[in-house]
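Internal ticket - ligand job 468, flavin-adenine dinucleotide:
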Amino acid sequence: MTGFIAACRNAIGARYVLTDAVDIAPYLLDKRGRFTGSACAVVRPGSTEEVAATVRLCNDFNVPIVPQGGNTGLVLGSVPDDSGKAIVLSLQRLNAIRNIDAVNNTMTVDAGCILQHVQQAAGNVQRLFPLSLAAEGSCTIGGNLSSNAGGTAVLRYGNSRELCLGLEVVTPQGDIWNGLRALRKDNTGYDLRDLYIGAEGTLGIITAAVLKLFPQPKAQRTALVALRTVDDALRLLMLAQQQCGAALTGFELMSAFCMTLVQRHFPQTRAPFPAAYAHYALIELSDSESDEHAGMLLDNVIGAAMSQDIAPDAVVATSLAQSTALWELRERIPLAQAAEGRNVKHDVALPISRIGDFIATTDALLQQAIPGLRMVTFGHVGDGNLHYNVAQPENEPDSFLLPHQAAINRIVHDSVHHFGGSISAEHGLGALKRDEILRYKSAVEMNLMRTIKQALDPRNLMNPGKVV
Ligand code: FAD
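stdout (structure tokens):
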């Protein structure tokens, strides 16, 4: 191993090859603190060529590679196992905005660029890069693309996959594929770009990407709508889509229990309505005309929802501060549920039409199996993505959930499968769900995935133990 470390230091500079326990510790720790891996080194190349040189050395010395961006992933994909054989290859030093083409509505960025910096660079030329998620201050474009991240604007703009036109990739053999094409039409063979997006670092290392930009909206308006049932939320979604079209950029659902938790753990939170309701929908419109036009669209949707007895009450933000306060209700849910105690978390996707049945059926199955469980149900319902989290019964200790975790996962995932859904909507499989997915994907699909992996990475050096 000393020969490998010396060769890496020679290739990219001694200060960028970390081996001291204190220096490498942050790269080994899972974001949620569930697991600490082990690595022979953390390597921090500063260019695509240095990434390629590092990968070639890993081939020479048979060293597995765990690519890492911001290490904000939630499925143990960006941390190594505990064998100590792998390196963590951090992309953080590849952080240049290479080019912005405002006419073509594209930008080319290094994979280690922080998402928030990419959003700001687009904003500087009056363009929008719409990917947005709570970890945007530390996650990277390479990590976003490798996990095909979703976030709050998927309803209008799609996942990371839909926001990417081209890639530059270092292959598992250390070759550089320059696929940085800024084209919206390119039918010239297999779509390698789409293969690498969502591959969670198992097929190669993304070193740069061409991203799509959009016109900046002139105005944004937010409303919180009180609802009695999940089916009413879906009727409201259809109404908003019909009346607002592409202006509808966010539609988030949260249950009454989510609201209770936010008010309990953030006592400064003001109750949005005089009465409590079973569910709430947060609607966001982004309008290309004007603030007045956005306000009119939103008023019309809410007026129609009330007259059709879909919504008993609603508040429309009339200032940025009010809009921020409404979004805070949604964004504080993960923090509030953590303050309440342990949770068994599920990031699932369902056909939108089946969300109501899924929630009712799964709630009942869980209550039957373990009476008193409390479901923290919220998510990007406009694109069918639910965070269906399960908290321990009131007054039970944190330790209550652990022995039940496997049973809870089984009930929830089987139910997701029954309703035609996916057990991982936007976080990926990583090491956490690698075995679980075998229960839900057919042997044919798993074999196709393994064939691709074997063809591109026959020595299994790229992020081994993840996904397949
Ligand atoms: P990492 O965590 O470093 O890596 C993620 C995976 O990609 C790993 O398998 C890693 O090996 C691989 N990888 C990283 N960089 C590269 C590269 N350059 N080439 C090849 N493989 C690479 N996700 C969502 O989709 N939607 C959300 O709304 C959302 N909200 C979140 C909120 C919070 C508070 C947190 C902590 C996480 C959230 N996530 C969300 C999950 C996570 O932030 C995203 O998946 C993010 O896209 C990961 O980016 P990263 O740079 O941190 O990647």
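Auto-summary: The two ends are 27 Å apart (CA to CA). The chain has four domains: 2-90, 97-215, 219-334, 341-427.
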